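Translate sequence into structure tokens.
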Amino acid sequence: IHNGPAAANGPVTIDSGLAAAMGVTSATTNLLRIGNVSSQAGFDSLNAILTSPESHYVNLHTSLNPGGAWRSQLAPAVTAMPALSAIISSVSDENLKTTAPGGLITVFGANLAKTATDLSGFNGLTRAPNTLNGTSATIDGKTAPVLAVSPGHAVLQVPVDAAAGMRPVVVSNSNGASAPMMVEILAASPALFFDSEGGIAFKASDNSLVRSNNPAAVGDTIYLLSTGLGLTEPRLATGQPPTDITNLTQPVSARIAGREARVLGSAAAPGMVGIYGSLVMVPAGVPSGMQPVTIGLGNTTSNTVNIAIR
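Result follows.
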């Protein structure tokens, strides 16, 4: 891999380690070579590739063509500025357009990042990054941790000291900064996570995911995942995943199939940023089948998700 834009030559910064003496031949298949990067120039190049892949190219050198048999830029040049088109809660319900301090939002748009990634490969993080693959963001002028990026979206945490009201969100990358888009921040804006099969709930007894083939029963305690529940005590710093119990400063209520459900506790989810867990007991009288679930804080109520009950 060389550093250099299209039509310009640049130095080798990451060498594959392949050599003619190895007798490498590949007539009909791809070659996969895993190499170690240990030099500062190599590390700098890796970071720059993620931020501006168009400024780097692969060049294959052979014994017949020592100057290079072919080259290809890692990505086409993208010079357009980031542009925002929508902001919703990160649970991906398009009707949830408010958020709360410490909660997660998904920002949609164009040219938000040049290389997509998330934090799934980063283990043991003590703080969510403020920049991911060259993309950063602010909410009301405060740095917002970035949990995932792609050209079309970015997942951000709202700073815990963000003020209530309509506040501007700005996303920046190596091309520059977007125009601001406003998002409404409330003291609490509960939102339950869900997927195509229903709400994300786990049985407290064995940590198994509640699904149609693993329904919860009356009397079971389930663990509901959400975001937007507001501040905790003790208060977590922006971007900080909890390592101990950090309870909410407001009580949480819950309803299952329209019946009030006992909430045994709600706190920030250990090891996660911007995600909360609520322990809820399935009340008597809930019928079997897919049943609606909501949680609430104060005068705010979450979206409705369905979970399987037997």
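Note: Residues 81 and 262 are 49 Å apart (CA to CA).
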